[in-house]
Amino acid sequence: MNPPYERLVQFLRDELRLSPSSIDLALRHSEQDLGPMPMVLWRYGLVTLEQLERIYDWLDSPGLPKVG
Hints:
Elements: H1 3-14, H2 20-31, H3 37-43, H4 49-59
């Protein structure tokens, strides 16, 4: 896992309280080029639209590396 994803995974665990299995599923599918990890989480119903917005707000925060 690359460093930007490590920070995203930490945010998903700590702030959104996502389960490790949900995060693993999203990582696997995003690596298979099925889309950005946040969209994979939403597409599979693992986050709500509100949580998806929080993820993208967090990703847009200054100082964070961009994650696809």
